[in-house]
Structure formats: structure tokens, C-alpha cells
Amino acid sequence: MRPTAVIFDVGRVLYDWDLRFLYEQLIEDGELLDAFLRDVVTPEWHYQHDAGRSFAETSAELAALHPHHAELIALLKPRFNETNRAMMPGMEALFDELHAAGVPLYAITNFSAEFFPPFREKHAGVFNRFLGIVVSGEEKLIKPDPAIYRLALDRFGLEAERTVFIDDNTDNIAGAESVGLIALHFTGEPKLRRELTELGLLARAPERA
Length: 209
Hints:
There is one protein chain. By secondary structure, this protein is α/β, with parallel strands linked by helices. The chain folds into two domains: 5-16 and 85-198, HAD superfamily/HAD-like (Rossmann fold, 3-Layer(aba) Sandwich), CATH 3.40.50; 18-83. The chain contains twelve helices and seven strands. The strands form two sheets. The protein has a five-stranded parallel beta sheet with strand order 5-4-1-6-7. Strands 2-3 form a two-stranded antiparallel sheet. α11 (170-178) links the parallel β6 and β7. The relative contact order is 0.18.
């Protein structure tokens, strides 16, 4: 059966994201920056926000362990949007084409409930075109837990076998496949465009004469 809807991941699929993007502006020394991101503000620590913990709790705990970095740690919340850059190469056009074709678009994102609203506001032109968004920090569920995919399917009234899910993380792809979604591993716009075209969701480019 031809799929009828698409669910996007956000970070590193639609938007380029890295904690480094913020902190390279604040720590000039490359070795100190690498050490800070390896030992202090790590992806594993930040993952707690996506799972639903408050920044007040996690930052207090981290600052207690690294009091000399307390000011840098505290900057993450007010300057979180600086960890996100422009849309991933080619994705703005691909997203626009799907929307123009009338494909229902949704998102499931591992994102802090506190950090997501200002990020969504900054990129309202994109996010206002989604028919629904599941934010892990709001639900206290996080990919690749199968429960977050089932929640999205139930909430949006979607059939798994007719819904495409796109993510850059292979664990998240496996979680989506476990509930029957058509899961596409994102490694860049060219491959994704080919896959969505083969699935009938994007029009084929006209052949050259």
C-alpha cells in the first residue's frame, strides 16, 4: 500500500543540531571546548531534558559537580536556540514539496519541554505546517521506546503500515519498525528524496530530453 503520511524527527533531520554550536562561541580554546563537551555538558546529560527532567534540576546537579563551569552550564537554557543552525542541506525544499503535495506531516522529537517552545516559535514557518507534534519531554516518553510511536499513531489517527517515519538514529529506526512504521534512516536529503519518490510521496523529476 502506498503510504499516506510522514512523521519527521527534528534534530539532525530537519535542523542541524549540536551542543558544540553554542559552546564554541563561549570557549575559544579548542582543547578546553572538547574537554567541556566530553566531561561536563555531554549528550548523555542533555538526554535527561528530552526524557522530561527540568533544567533547574539537572543544571543544579551538574554545577555542583563542576562549580567552576556553573556559568557556562546555566547559559544552555536561555541560549539553547544557538545549538540549532539552519535546516539540513536540501531539507527545506523537500519539506516544502511534501507540504505542497498535500502529504500530512507530523513529528516525533526527543526535545526538552522547556526548550521546544522557543525553538518552535523561532521556526514557526515550518512547525505551523505540521498537523501534530509529539515532544518527548512533554510526554515523559522518549525514542526509541515503542510507546512514543504508538502514542503518536493513536493521537493522530494514523495506520503504521501507511506511515513513513524518518530519523537519523538507528536505534530510533528500530523502535519505529517494531510498531510497524515504514522507517527510513536519514543520512542526507538525496537518499531520502529517492526513497520518498519510490514510495510515491514525491513526484519524479522530469527526464531530460
